[in-house]
Design a protein that fits this description.
288 residues, mainly beta, Thiol Ester Dehydrase, Chain A, 2 domains
Length: 288
């Protein structure tokens, strides 16, 4: 992942025409655009067309084509509805004249109402766990040379897995995983920035949950993995630069697809957001 100033820059879309925004991708050496980037940028584009007294409460997106990191992405916003309490937007991300991603977002004015939630699971505190960067750097010492630099850098986005997997020698495990995550440096106070950063991060590990029972290695040449859709609900205010627990599970995998869910809590135990995602997990014939 990119340094913090690049994350903010990633979300600094250029308005080139009414309801039309242009964005670029950071140079991270990826072969295709990271899905969380497109989700976050689409949310930025939609938010630019909505009154400040309304915040996103849900989004539903579909990944249609792999994004090219070398060319800009055009985000076109359709103003579907502006109601008294809710505002609806639809965003299409376009490259070379073709849609690569589409997302619907609903915004709501702040209201009081019924209040309940699932309790946060008990886990070690983030301060007691090694970072994902430290875990990967230690694991990489035994990896083939061509893979040793894959996770050698540090990141302004910090993750601390509760139950890390050995990526070279994974063992079958239950389809669940938990990790603490946050932006490693202070973000502006604008709640919309925090929503966009969390949307960015929510795609980072969710699909991996479906591969855990099958001991899939990221270095297998015969494995094809890609996000197909992504949905997210924002329940309560939060800061993405404070530790958040991502509690993830995968109820089912079938038809070369893995279905995954996530609950995101702050350290006070408040459920601040939920996610679901289905992704392609295709195993081609041949040795892994």
């Amino acid at each position: 992942m990119q340094p913090l100033n690049q994350i903010i820059k990633t979300f600094d879309l250029e308005e080139i025409e009414l309801n039309h925004y242009l964005a670029t991708s950071p140079n991270e050496g990826w072969q295709r655009v990271y899905g969380g980037q497109v989700i976050g940028q689409a949310l930025v584009a939609a938010s630019r067309t909505v009154d400040a007294d309304r915040s996103a409460h849900s989004l539903h997106g579909y990944f249609l084509r792999a994004g090219d990191t070398e060319i800009p992405i055009l985000y076109k916003v359709d103003r579907i509805r502006d109601g008294k309490s809710f505002t609806t937007r639809r965003v299409v991300a376009i490259q070379r004249g073709q849609a690569i991603f589409t997302m619907s977002i609903s915004f709501q004015v702040a209201e009081d109402g019924l209040n309940h939630q699932f309790d946060m699971p008990t886990t070690p505190a983030p301060e007691t766990l090694p970072s994902n960067d430290e875990i990967r750097q230690e694991q990489a010492k035994s990896w083939p040379p061509e893979f040793q630099d894959t996770f050698s850098g540090s990141s302004a986005i910090q993750t601390r897995p509760v139950d890390p997997v050995d990526m070279l020698h994974p063992q079958p495990a239950d389809p669940v995983q938990r990790c603490w995550m946050r932006c490693g440096e202070a973000l502006p106070d604008d709640p919309r920035i925090h929503q966009c950063v969390l949307a960015y991060l929510s795609d980072w590990s969710l699909l991996d949950t479906a591969t855990r029972p099958h001991a899939v290695r990221f270095m297998q040449d015969n494995v094809q993995v890609a996000s197909l859709d992504h949905a997210m609900w924002f329940h309560r205010p939060f800061r993405a630069d404070e530790w958040l627990l991502y509690d993830q599970d995968s109820p089912s995998a079938s038809g070369a697809r893995g279905f995954n869910r996530g609950l995101i809590y702050n350290q006070a135990g408040e459920l601040v957001a939920s996610t679901t995602q289905e992704g392609l997990v295709r195993i081609h014939s041949g040795d892994g």
